[in-house]
């Protein structure tokens, strides 16, 4: 067999190998999941990269896009429980959280989008019909309504379709002019009440902080005064001990002791009527010095 006759055989072998590798492998990309069906059993692979499996028809692979999807609804006129016709528009984001359930129930994003549109609009109408103007336009009315929409949708889609909603929000509300003034007045009243509660709480906390500061200040002043008296007493004792060693300073020592006693008596808010020669208080009189001979 010459070289030219071997070329078709080599090409056939290469093509067969490529086809075999293609049938026995699959790849998982970012934001993707692959469901492998083999012998009636389903397995999920979410790790990105190249993977291997048994060839078809033993094992089949189905790629599921798990990227977050966005839904934007159109404006719809829905009456509230108190018969106010509101034009509202809703938006939502969702993703496939369980690819196996999704594949067995819906199978494709096209089918999912049609089914979810019907579910979202039905849920939107049922929730808004159960609300009145006070429920929707109170301080937390919109937040509560959107949370209710989100929980209702997840309760229907997670187990049945393997889909989870991350966000559901009402993007616009058009209120009839005949009801706009009363709704705005209600909203202003709610905001004023909430601001009053916040201000009252702040004033209460400020009073507690002031009381704590005053208490701490009183304790610090009392401690400082006690420390000052202690140090002054210690100093007077030390000075007195030094001066008592010298008899020529006995008059000055007596003066210091009287002055200390006068300070202790004068600590209290008391009015006394005494003569200038009363002991202790005589220190307030001008001192008489003897002339040196």
TrEMBL record:
This is SPFH domain-containing protein. Pfam families: Band_7 (PF01145). It is a single-pass membrane protein. Its main location: membrane. It is found in: Membrane. PANTHER family: MODULATOR OF FTSH PROTEASE HFLC (PTHR42911:SF1). Residues 23-187 form the Band domain. SMART domains: PHB (SM00244). InterPro entries: Band_7 (IPR001107), Band_7/SPFH_dom_sf (IPR036013). SUPFAM superfamilies: Band 7/SPFH domain (SSF117892).
């Amino acid at each position: 067999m010459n070289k030219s006759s071997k070329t078709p055989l080599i090409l056939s072998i290469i093509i067969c190998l490529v086809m075999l590798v293609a049938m026995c492998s699959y790849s998982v990309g970012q934001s993707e999941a692959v469901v492998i069906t083999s012998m009636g059993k389903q397995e999920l692979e979410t790790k990105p990269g190249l993977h291997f499996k048994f060839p078809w028809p033993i094992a089949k692979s189905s790629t599921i896009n798990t990227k977050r999807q966005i839904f934007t609804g159109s404006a719809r006129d829905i009456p509230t429980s108190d018969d106010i016709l509101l034009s509202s528009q809703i938006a939502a984001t969702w993703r496939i959280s369980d690819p196996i359930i999704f594949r067995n129930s819906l199978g494709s994003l096209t089918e999912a989008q049609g089914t979810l549109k019907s579910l979202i609009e039905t849920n939107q109408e049922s929730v808004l019909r159960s609300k009145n103007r006070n429920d929707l336009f109170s301080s937390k009315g919109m937040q509560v309504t959107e949370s209710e929409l989100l929980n209702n949708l997840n309760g229907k889609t997670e187990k049945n379709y393997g889909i989870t909603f991350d966000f559901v929000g009402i993007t616009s509300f058009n209120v009839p002019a005949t009801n706009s003034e009363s709704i705005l007045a209600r909203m202003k009243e709610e905001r004023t009440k909430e601001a009053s509660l916040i201000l009252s709480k702040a004033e209460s906390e400020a009073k507690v902080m002031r009381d704590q500061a005053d208490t701490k200040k009183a304790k610090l002043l009392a401690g400082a005064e006690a420390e000052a008296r202690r140090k002054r007493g210690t100093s007077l004792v030390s000075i007195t001990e030094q001066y008592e060693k010298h008899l020529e300073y006995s008059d000055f020592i007596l003066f210091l002791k009287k002055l200390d006693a006068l300070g202790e008596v004068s600590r209290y808010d008391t009015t006394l009527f005494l003569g200038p020669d009363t002991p202790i208080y005589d220190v307030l009189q001008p001192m008489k010095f003897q002339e040196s001979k």
